[in-house]
Each structure stands twice: as structure tokens, then as C-alpha cells.
Amino acid sequence: MPIHTRPRVTQDKILTFQLQPMPADTVTENRVxxxxxxxxxxxxxxxxxxxxxxxxxxxxxxxxxTVGIDAMVFKKPLFVGDLVKIFTEVARQGRSSVTIKTEVxxxxxxxxxxxxxxxxxxxxxxxxxxxxxxxxxxxNNAQNPVLVPPGAGRKAGAVVSQSLTPLxxxxxxxxxxxxxxxxxxxxxxxxxxxxxxxxxxGFATQIAGGHRVANVALDAMTFHKPVLVGDExxxxxxxxxxxxxxxxxxxxxxxxxxxxxxHEKxxxxxxxxxxxxxxxxxxPIGASPAP
Length: 291
Description:
By secondary structure, the chain is mainly beta. The chain has two domains: 1-154, Hotdog Thioesterase (Thiol Ester Dehydrase, Chain A); 157-291, Hotdog Thioesterase (Thiol Ester Dehydrase, Chain A), CATH 3.10.129.10. Helix content is 14%, strand content 39%. It is built from two helices and twelve strands, in the order βββαβββββαββββ. The chain has helices at residues 34-56, 189-207, and strands at residues 14-19, 26-28, 31-32, 64-74, 83-93, 97-108, 113-126, 169-174, 212-223, 232-242, 246-256, 263-276. It has a ten-stranded antiparallel β-sheet with strand order 1-5-6-7-4-9-12-11-10-8, covered by helices on one side. Helix 1 packs antiparallel against helix 2 (189-207). The longest helix has 23 residues, at 34-56. The radius of gyration is 19 Å and the shape is globular. The protein starts with 13 loop residues before the first strand and ends in a 15-residue tail after the last strand.
């Protein structure tokens, strides 16, 4: 049956990226990894934030860094063969920050239509060459209205840890290189998001007794510090909530700084997964997975 839903495109909401996932981007049976999708959303949101900041103050070249992600909901899976369309819109602006509302739509070739896959709010801070926050000079830009009031978006119950030591167990240890950097020379935020999903989904699969899991939400993602080339990054996972079919995982990324050995938290978030069967239907976590 054809899908008749269409994205609402306005003067402010624009098509920023259009791309197709490859088989290498999948987790199983042509289903695309949520980590790949998060990475591409961060790229698209970052591009829109750069353009918005640059329009008001070219002196700082539109430099911006990701500082948080709110209200991320995964509505539908993506598959190889889908044409992915990422739309962005300026949602709100603070003194030095801008929040981008980002939607992902999939053109289902086999179904002859498009449908929304996911949406979320990405927040960036404008910075100077020394990575210090600077004021965004676009507060009165009539073409970029505030769509989301300050404080909206973050889900109730999403808690950001203030611990000075890692919480949970080490699930993944990686050392990023030059291939993973952004224009500022820092490790690209999308790389971190993708690796966090890898670690969290692996942990959720264990908790779900071997069932496949699908990412359904991302809450309270906060980026504290940049990751640099050569840092050893360890991802720690801990069970937050266990439901009938769902698993929520707290995940923290800590960097051991190359040269100094300093160990500090760089980002953290709460990922929620649902256990699914071979047809991607939710199943009770206590049930035995099909062979």
C-alpha cells in the first residue's frame, strides 16, 4: 500500500542532506544502524548551525560544537535502498547557542512514498578560534523564528550523571584518528554518537537475553568536552530501566588524554531499546529468541 505522508517543507525548514545508506551501515537484514543515522543527523544539524551562525558574524567563521541532544525519538527503521532526506530548522537561540530541529524522512522505493523515521533537537554553541563561547549575532533574524521555548524538549526522567568516576562497566575501548575529525580538528560528534550506540546496543542485547534490539529513543545526551586525536576513549554502560520489552542504558564516554594520561568524562546519554523478533515486532524480554 502506498505511503501518503509527506514532510511539511517551509521557508525555514529546508532539505539539508539527501543520501542512501550502504550495506556496510546495517546491523542485520538490511536494517540500518541507529548509530549511522545519528551521525548523519549530527552532520546535517551542524551544517545548519554553521550557516546560521556565519550569517550573523562571519568573523568567527561559523564555528560551532555539539553540546546536547534532546527529545530524540526513533519512529521507524531505515533499510538499505531507502533514500534518506534530512530536514533542518532553527528551533531556538540563546546568547551563544542555537538549537536545530532535525527530521529524517525515508523515501521507501518499494512502497512508493515517504515516511518520517526520526526527529530530534541538536544544540550547538558558537565558539571562537580558542574554543571559547561567543555571542550569536542573529537574535533578531525574522527568518529564523523561535519554534521551541527555552527548556522544552528534554524528556522528564532523563537524568545526567554528575559522577566524577565512570559508572557501569567498560563495554568498548577505541582510539580515534585523523579520519574521524571535524573542521576544528576535534573528533567529530557523530563518530562519538555512533560508537555510543554500538556499545549501548551490545549491552542491551545481552540484557534482552540475545534478542535483537531496536533503538527507540535517545534522552539527555550531553557533550562535556572535546575528544582529540590519540585519546583512548572508553564507553561505559549501565542498566537504567528494564521494562517488559524495553531496556534503557546509561552510557558514558571517558577519554584518557594522550600525553597527560588525564581521565575525564567527555559525553553521556540515555539510550532506550526495544527487543524485537525476526519481523521487527516487540517481544517480551523473558521469552527465548527464535533461532
